[in-house]
Amino acid sequence: MGVILHKKQYILIYKTSYLTLLSFLYSLYQEHYNISIVPGSIFVGAILYWSKPDYSWRRYLDMAIAKTCIIYQLYMAYYNDYAILYYFIATIGLSCYPLGIYYYKKNDYWNSTYSHMAMHIILNIGNIILYSGKFNY
The whole model's pTM is what? Predict the structure, then answer.
């Protein structure tokens, strides 16, 4: 089964996946154990998939983990001091995903790669902001 991007492209996405490890460690540092499962799980799924992205079970596992965790975190963010700022940043970050799909379908693989990397970067900035606040539940 062939990979879905050129190696130079998917390695860049793989490397930005490590930002989620930083979010995970910061959530533990802030003692937000209920939410730390989100970046921890997303990190494992992303590293597993982006090390060699293809249309295997790893792709579908990564997507299922990411979607489930994002829904959970969007719900939990409601109870955080920085909820409004986080939702604003998350909206921008999440909008990079369909943009990347658009570019991919146009065979513009570099812009698709950059869109996916931007999503990783923006969402992890949002994570750090969210985890800096207190969860009030």
Answer: 0.95
